[in-house]
Specification:
The complex is a heterodimer of chains A (265) and B (265). By secondary structure, chain A is mostly helical. Chain A has twelve helices and no strands. In chain B, helix 3 packs antiparallel against helix 6, helix 4 runs parallel beside helix 7 and helix 7 runs antiparallel to helix 10. Helix content of chain B is 74%, strand content 0%. Chain B is mainly α and 265 residues long. The model of chain B has no long low-confidence stretch (mean pLDDT 93). Chain B has one domain. Chain B starts with a helix and ends in a 6-residue tail after the last helix. The chains are: A mainly alpha (265), B mainly alpha (265). The interface between A and B is large, with 39 and 37 residues.
Chain lengths: 265, 265
């Protein structure tokens, strides 16, 4: 594990150095990412020129959901977002070369062309979260849940990125499939889960535990009650969801790698 | 017909990637579902916002999803090929051809857009029809107008993407400019939220910019918000931007051609 992490950092550092060789491009892309990931919040803000509460949430509380959702996907995207490129690596025949190197395959794929500009989503989401967090009535327990939520949210999205990208071991050009779960999941979490039908809420709790990335812990921090009638202890169950996600992801990844049969065979 | 042949080849080229198309349809549908529920809650809290009923709003969501790929919102399409060919210098071959470069790429992009409209446009809309009973075109005139409006939307988007691609004649790396262009089309097309919901002067401005032709105008035509001469005015708005921008493309290309020095000539 330590070796893998060291290898990741070493490869990522090379890519960061190379991208900083073109500072104008780097900053243009970073500012661009900052703007493009922030559009959704502008949409929510415009929405509030027509209403005062959305699904029982005011603008700041919506900002809280938005910020935590952005941080969850942002952290995962920064570290493992490149896993979406498996299909391309397969097409170019690079995956075979990677497999023969003494560094874990996932580390190589994710650290390859590591893009520091992806930090923009974290900065932008973090900014909104700080603004939204100003109005929260903080207690030590709530602060603890916030820290756990950010960590678990990152892990849950890490799992989504990796497990749904495994499809590409079979169909190399279906990279967009995983977007429905990663970016789709993050978009969904920008809204209160209670505005979706109950089946969606149940599915995102017990089948694909995306709701634990921000919804349940946010209810605890904001002192709100779930209207879907699910038990309160779910608000503190994010670490369990994150653990399940890790187990499922490692199984999916191993299954995918084992079934990978190079191109042309 | 040369241009028809180019368009047909381009259509076929994009139709090769079946898995990618299916994955894309799936993703568009998931986003359609998410935004449908999000909009239903918005219109429950603010009925008739922007002059839309809830059914109008949900119809707006699914038509919006169908326009993303049709107008190549996040860039892509034949203009990306042009950008790459300018960077590598292959554009000199394009300039040699006894066919105007602008119309060659335009024909190709129309072929691409037709393919994307028929697959990634229609398929998610069918899901919207089954699940949310979205509206059909308001009147026969609206249906014909919608077809014309989508064509003009693709034309305006092509012209803007062409202008962005040709910046590669002057700058080494135009990916920053391309990202900015994608952000503008995402933010100002009505994709995130109908532009009619933007209050005050800002609303008037965004409705007058060329990006409004991408999503806002075609959907309003479809929903029958423009009648008689007003319908012609809406299409005229798009046509005006199309002519102005295509004219600009021609002028830029002329300037660029004067600048290009082909090796040995």
């Amino acid at each position: 594990m330590g070796d893998a992490l060291a290898a990741y950092v070493a490869i990522a550092r090379l890519w960061v150095r190379s991208s900083l060789e073109y500072p104008a491009s780097f900053w243009a892309m970073t500012v661009g990412s900052l703007l493009s990931t922030g559009i959704d919040f502008v949409g929510i803000w415009v929405m509030f020129s027509h209403l005062t509460t959305y699904g029982g949430f005011d603008l700041r509380q919506m900002g809280f959901l938005y910020g935590t959702s952005q941080l969850a996907i942002g952290l995962a995207d920064l570290v493992v977002g490149n896993v979406e490129r498996i299909g391309m690596q397969i097409r170019l025949g690079r995956l075979d070369a990677m497999m023969s190197k003494p560094v874990p395959l996932l580390v190589q794929i994710c650290a390859d062309q590591f893009a520091l500009r992806r930090i923009a989503r974290i900065v932008q989401g973090g900014g909104v979260l700080i603004w939204a967090g100003w109005a929260v009535d903080w207690t030590p327990a709530r602060a603890g849940v916030l820290v756990s939520m950010l960590a678990c949210g990152g892990v849950i999205f890490f799992g989504l990125f990796v497990s749904f990208s495994c499809v590409q071991f079979w169909t190399a050009d279906a990279s967009e499939f995983s977007n429905a779960f990663t970016y789709g999941g993050a978009s969904l979490l920008e809204y209160p889960l209670s505005v979706f039908p109950k089946q969606v809420a149940l599915g995102l709790t017990f089948i694909l535990p995306i709701a634990f990335a921000n919804w349940y812990p946010s209810l605890f921090i904001l002192g709100k009650h779930d209207t879907t009638g699910l038990p309160h202890w779910l608000e503190l169950a994010s670490p369990v969801a994150a653990l399940v996600m890790i187990l499922v992801t490692s199984t999916a990844w191993r299954f995918g790698v084992r079934h990978y049969t190079s191109t042309g065979s | 017909m040369l241009y028809a042949a180019v368009a047909v080849r381009s259509f076929r080229r994009y139709s090769t990637y079946t898995a990618a198309t299916l994955a894309g349809i799936f993703t568009n549908s998931v986003f359609g579902l998410i935004y449908s529920y999000a909009y239903i809650e918005l219109w429950r809290a603010a009925p008739h916002a922007g002059g839309y009923t809830t059914t109008d709003a949900v119809t707006y969501v699914w038509l919006g999803q169908s326009m993303i790929m049709t107008v190549a919102m996040w860039s892509g399409g034949t203009t990306d090929d042009l950008n790459e060919r300018i960077r590598t210098g292959d554009v000199s071959i394009d300039l040699y051809r006894p066919v105007p470069v602008l119309w060659w790429y335009y024909a190709g992009d129309l072929g691409r857009a037709t393919y994307h409209f028929l697959t990634r446009g229609l398929a998610p809309s069918l899901i919207g029809l089954v699940l949310f009973h979205i509206r059909g075109p308001a009147t026969p005139a609206a249906a014909v107008g919608f077809a014309a409006s989508v064509f003009l939307a693709v034309t305006v988007s092509f012209a803007i993407r062409f202008l962005v691609a040709t910046t590669a004649f002057w700058v080494l790396d135009s990916s920053g400019i391309r990202l900015m262009s994608a952000i503008l089309s995402m933010a100002l097309s009505g994709m995130v939220l109908p532009l009619n919901l933007v209050p005050g002067v800002a609303g008037t401005i965004v409705n007058a910019l060329p990006w409004a032709s991408y999503v806002q105008v075609p959907i309003d035509v479809y929903l029958g918000r423009h009648h008689g001469t007003d319908l012609l005015a809406a299409l005229g708005f798009q046509a005006l931007w199309a002519v102005v921008l295509l004219g600009l493309c021609g002028w830029v290309l002329e300037r660029a051609t004067a600048k290009v020095v082909v090796q040995g000539g």
